[in-house]
Amino acid sequence: MSDDAYNALILSGLKGVGPSTIEKVLALSSYPLKTLVELCEYASDLRKKSLTSEQFDEARRYADFQIDMASKNDTKIISLLDSEFPRALAISGVRVAVLYVKGNVELLNSPSVAVIGTRQPTLHGEEITKRMTHWMVQQGWAIVSGLALGCDSIAHKQAIKSFGKTVAVMAHGLHTVSPSQNKDLASSILSSGGALVSEFAFDVKPIPTNFVIRDKTQSALSQGVMMIQSDLVGGSLHASRAAIKDRRPLIVPYPTDQDIRNSESKISANLLLASDDVIGKCNLLKCDPAALEKLHIVRRREDYDMMLEVLSRSLR
After folding, report:
1. Are 116 and 214 in a shared domain?
2. pTM, to two decimals
3. Dist CA 14 CA 40 (whole Å)
4. Side-chain half-sphere of 133: how many Cα atoms within 13 Å?
5. Are β-strands 76-79 and 166-169 bridged in parallel, bridged antiparallel, or unpaired?
6. Does any domain span residue 59?
7. What is the CATH classification number for the domain harbouring 196?
């Protein structure tokens, strides 16, 4: 682990100090000349609270615990100043100071697309997840998802089946796997050359707010997002909004006639995003009309080349 990662860990152990503050502290032009205590004092000054010796000692114990747990769990800890830190994440609007990575760290800087969607996809949702994932893997892209049931699991499994690489972004520390049903899938991701990633420290549990944070990070790690299916209040919209906010492509497949006839609730967001209702789309994605230029609807297999082109632009 680098000195930067160790310092970032200690800073993150200070109460009230978040990723944005840590980024400011580590970005000091004279950083190499600063002692660890001075860095912590500066972080405390930014939050307008003085640093006590007890707080500093507690932060060091926190960092040492994380290092020990990382060693026991075969996990690498990297900071935003490390060369291995994902470039896509660094230039996104999502602030992350420390990443915990189990598996293929180099994969985090490979071309990748996030494949997300409802936990209860329709039969077409399952099929289109497999098709789009397989096609992107054939083009040499890694698949990023969240290891959730439904579309996430299907995307991870298809990536592996198609002999590709996949990254699972977790909403908790890497000492565990949630949901527990996907422990074998997590192992398969690692054994196939993929990675498990989290911005959450060891012993952090999968509480609801963490999933919202995780969803945004999925988008930030990728060149774009494929939102397979979602209703109007689905968790997949967090990643979709993050992609649009970062001006990265949001790819949305159009529903089948059968799903439309069946009034499937899990396609309601797809239908709105494919409509001419600009105000409705902006309200759903929480964006201005100009940002909708990054929204792309896939209606047929022939649109896959367009999909690849708009995603590839994000690499330039």
Report:
1. yes
2. 0.93
3. 8
4. 32
5. unpaired
6. yes
7. 3.40.50.450
